[in-house]
Automatic annotation (TrEMBL):
Lineage: Bacteria, Bacillati, Actinomycetota, Actinomycetes, Streptosporangiales
Domain of life of the source: Bacteria
GO molecular function ontology, one term from the record: DNA-binding transcription factor activity
Descriptive protein name: MarR family transcriptional regulator
Pfam entry (one): MarR
Cited Gene3D superfamilies: Winged helix-like DNA-binding domain superfamily/Winged helix DNA-binding domain
Domain annotation HTH marR-type: ranges: 1-148
GO biological process, one term: response to stress
Entries under SUPFAM superfamilies matching the protein: Winged helix' DNA-binding domain (SSF46785)
PROSITE patterns (UniProt xref): HTH_MARR_2 (PS50995)
Origin species: Nocardiopsis ansamitocini
Length: 155
């Protein structure tokens, strides 16, 4: 690492501050709306949407953790909370005694089916509708570029 910090110039700082402000405001508002509309946390939603998008509503813990970019312990705690509310179940993996599946329950399917249409309307109203199709394409490409760059950087 360099001894002298590479401080952000005014344009870099403006871009970074704009991104952070957008991210915090958008995620915070969507999370509050999701909770108010469906009594579901954003973490509940991300787990259920990923499970229910699979063919059989099940995923291995590690696979789901990697997909949503969470540490194993965070996923374990989230799943435990959701199991208490009957949204997901844990099933042993017949091929691997150490492995387990997270499975969406009928109550989990019902919760996501009820929440998703309202949530997507908020996403559309607060994010999608603010941009032209060309701007959305550019935003998606820039986001992917930063994500790809991050993957190549050491922690």
């Amino acid at each position: 690492m360099n001894a002298t910090p590479r401080w952000l110039d005014p344009d870099e700082k403006a871009a970074w501050d704009s991104f952070i402000n957008l991210q915090e405001a958008l995620i915070g508002r969507l999370s509050r709306l999701l909770q108010a509309d469906s009594k579901m946390s954003a973490s509940d939603y991300i787990v259920l949407v990923n499970l229910t998008e699979t063919g059989d509503g099940r995923m291995r813990y590690l696979e789901l953790s990697k997909l949503v970019k969470w540490e194993k312990s965070r996923m374990s705690h989230q799943v435990a909370r959701m199991m208490k509310r009957g949204l997901v179940a844990r099933e042993e993996c017949p091929d691997d005694a150490r492995g387990a599946f997270i499975v969406a329950t009928p109550a989990g399917y019902k919760a996501i089916e009820d929440a998703a249409p309202i949530h997507v309307e908020h996403v559309r109203r607060l994010f999608i509708d603010a941009l032209t199709p060309n701007q959305l394409d550019t935003f998606a490409r820039l986001s992917k570029r930063v994500s790809d760059h991050m993957e190549k950087q050491p922690d």
